[in-house]
Input
Amino acid sequence: MGTLRYNDIPTPRMWRRDCGRAMGLHRADPLLGRVEALLEEYARDTAGEGLLALVEMYRVLEAGRRRHRLTAAVRALRECVTWRLCRILSCEASRLPYEIETMFGHGEGRLAMAAGHPGSGSWA
Output
């Protein structure tokens, strides 16, 4: 079996299938449940590009990355969300936390600067 990769943001149904879980079990895992709710919100956004749902998904997946064992579906979604946001915001992945903070707040860019990530604006 090859590596799971999404070419576009998956539907909630695809997400459940790829996670290999029945619908109700997502609610037991806070990360998976929150991501599923955001995928549903993204799917309902017919007026825009689902930017707010994508930003929140990015934050949830990044926070979960630090303390949650990433399954293939979570890794693939994280990569797809990052790619999509970079395309919308016209930036590289290394600058994405800064761009999100600039537009939406919540300290993501400050965290990247403090960690000295490339492209974060840290000149030291």
Q: What stands out?
A: The chain has a mean pLDDT of 77. DSSP finds six helices and no strands in the chain. The helical segments are 12-19, 30-44, 51-67, 72-89, 96-104, 108-115. The longest helix spans residues 72-89.
